[in-house]
Amino acid sequence: MFTDQGSQFTAAEFTATVLDNNIKLSMDGKGRAMDNVFMERFLGTMCAEHVYLNPTNDGHLLFKGIHAYMNYSIMERRHESLNYCTPYSQYQQNTNKNKMSKIRHPISYPHILCFVTKKRKK
User: Fold this and answer.
1) Is the pLDDT score of 92 beyond 80?
2) What does DSSP say about strands 112-117 and 103-109: parallel, antiparallel, or unpaired?
3) Rounded distance between C-alpha atoms, residue 37 and residue 114, angstroms
């Protein structure tokens, strides 16, 4: 997990939980927001377009809302930098060009974007 050095990420309880779950913890340099510029940009956009517009004190509703926004961003939102394609369609095109296995479905989590590929049976 890659984080900045904010107090919430350097707290003993957080780091212990991460390490107890066998997750490798990596932090950018102090004052180095550019180390993770793409994630910083995504989180800023998500907060501006979803989180701040849908305030809630319910953690479950917040999680569901973030999950829905991330799926929208991956599956439906067209990005100028991708020639107005969605990240999902761009990934499929690149996967097909490289003759790799096709994507079956995307999965998103609030802290990471990932795609699941179907493994071929031998």
Assistant:
1) yes
2) antiparallel
3) 18
| φ, ψ (nearest 5 deg) of residue 116 | -105, 130
Residues 9 and 43 in one domain: no
70 CB neighbour count, 10 Å cutoff: 20
Task: Please state, in angstroms and rounded to a whole number, the distance separating the CA atoms of residues 20 and 14.
Answer: 10
Higher per-residue confidence, 38 vs 80: 80
What whole-number distance in Å separates Cα of residue 80 and Cα of residue 95?
A: 20
- What are the phi and psi torsion angles at 52 (to 5°)? -70, -25
Same domain, 16 and 6: yes
Q: Residue 65's domain spans which residues?
A: 33-117
Pick from 1-5, 49-53, 63-67, 90-94: least confident = 1-5
Dihedral sign of CA atoms 92, 95, 96, 101 in order: negative
91 falls within a domain: yes
Is the pTM above the cut of 0.85? no
| Same-domain status, 40 and 54 | yes
| pLDDT of 81 | 86
